[in-house]
Amino acid sequence: MSDTPPPSSAPPILRLRLVFGDTLMLGPGKADLLDLIGQTGSISAAGRAMGMSYKRAWLLVEQMNAAFRTPLVISTRGGSKGGGASLTEAGQTVLNHYRTLEARTAQAGADQIAALEAMLSDMSDGK
Fold it and tell me: Domain range spanning residue 46?
């Protein structure tokens, strides 16, 4: 038996989801949504980039805003200049903490992830 991991098309991905009581689940989807709102200045554009409806994106933003002491996203309605959205300081801080936790968790678990990957059967034929 070889210690070489089987070939794969992509490296394994660690997905971190935090559950805070019954109030909030914060995971990669919400973090990506916050990140994209920060980049695009738009809840609608962020949702589209993730393949979700504006309604779904807005619902997730409302859930996050309600769960934290300070809103994570502020938005302005459309008008002659159009609407928009941006991360608040709290929103950027939450995103930064989540991304740091993600990176630290992946780094701390790298040996175990590699060991698990080495135990996989050959998945190159689409099994």
Answer: 29-117
